[in-house]
Write the C-alpha cells for this entry.
Amino acid sequence: MNTARNQPSDETLVVAYVESGDEQAIRALVERHQERLYGYLLGMVRDRNVADDLFQETFVRVLSALRSERASYSDQGRFLGWAMRIARNAALDHLRQRKRWQDVESTADEDGQSFWEQLTDDAPPADYTMHEQDRRETLRACIDRLPPEQREVVLLRHESELTFREIAALTGVSINTALGRMRYALLNLRRMMLTPAVRAAGSIDNTNG
Amino acid sequence: MDRKLQLIAHLYDEDIDGLEPLGSLLDDPELRAEYEAIGETRFTLEQRERVRPDPRLVNAIVASALRNAPPRPATGLRLVRTTRFWFPVLSAAATVLLLVLVNPWQMASPTIQHDELSVAESEAFPAAENLLKALPPAPPAVAGVAREVDTDAPALHWDTGDDLRHLSRRIERLGAAGIDEWDNPAVPLEALPTSAGRNGLIQTGASRPRK
C-alpha cells in the first residue's frame, strides 16, 4: 500500500532493508503501517501495555521472517496483509492464554442464531441524536462489548483498512461470513449506542471480551 | 448474495461481482431503513481518532532491526546516495582543474613588460628568414630572371627573394591555366552563360525571360 505517487512501495522498502540494512527504509515501513497494526492490536486486547508488547513482537517476527525467508514473503503478496497475519496470530495467542478468545462461534439458540445475531426493534428512531463526544466514548465502549469475531471485523475494516476479501482470507471465512459479521456489528453497535438501558446496564454477557 | 449483505458491500465500496445496483436495493423500504442506520454507524466509526504507538517504541523496533540487519555493502542505495553526493563535487573540482591546466597564461599576471612581450612574440613566431629557407627553389624561368638582375646593383630593401618566390608560383599557376595562349581570340561576353541559363548578356531594356 503506497501513500503517494512519489513514495516508494512497501516492496522497495523491504528490499532496501534486507539487502542493505537501510535504516530509513525500515523506519518508513514501520511508520507507514503503525496505525493500522497498532489500532487493530489495541482494539483486540484493550490494554495499551499489552498492545505495545504485541506491536513490537509483531515487527520482530516480521523482520526475522524477512531476513531469513524473503522468498516466502514475496509469495505471500502484499506486505500489510502478511504483517496483519502475524499481528493477528500474536493477538490470538495472547487472548487464548487468557481464555478470552473462543475459536468457535458464540452459543446459538434453536434458530442457529446467537444473541448478537438477534436484532430487536427497540432502538430509538433514526433521528435520535447524541452529543458527538458522548458518541465517540460510547462507541469505544460498545466496540469492546462486541463478540470477538464481530469486534475483529470492525477493527480489521476500520483500523487496518483491509477489504472484506482480505478480511475473509485473513480470518479463514467466506466473504459472505465476513460481510455478515460486519452487518451484525454495525447494527449491534447502533443498538447499544442508542439504547440507554443496554448501554448503562452492561447486561450483555460477553465472556469473550 | 443476500441483499442485506449487498448493502454492506455497497456501503464500503467493496468490489464484488454480481451486486445489484444500490438504487434497486433502496427501492425496498426495509433495506433503505437498514442502509441509513448502518450508514450512520459507519460514519461514526470513520470519525474515530486513529491510535498509534509511542514513538519510542518505533525507535526501539528500528534499532533492533538495525542490530540484526545485514551489513551495508558499498553498492545499491548507499552507493547511489554516495555517488549523488560526491559526483557534483568531483565534477566541479575537475572543471576548475581543467581550466587551470588548459589556460595557464590566463592565470598569470596581466601586467607584462613591453620588452618581455616582444621577446615572447619573437620566440612565438619564427623569423621570416627561416621560412624562406624552407621554400622550394624558383623555376628556371624565374631563376633566369633572377640571374638577369644585376647582382652588382645595390640590393634594394624591397627587392627580396620573397617577392620572386611569389611571382614564380603565380607564373606556374597561369601556365597551368593555359595563359600562354594569350594570342587566342578572347571569348566574347555574349557567349558566356548567365545565371538565368541563357547564353550571353541580357541587354538593358530587354524583356526578362518568363519562368
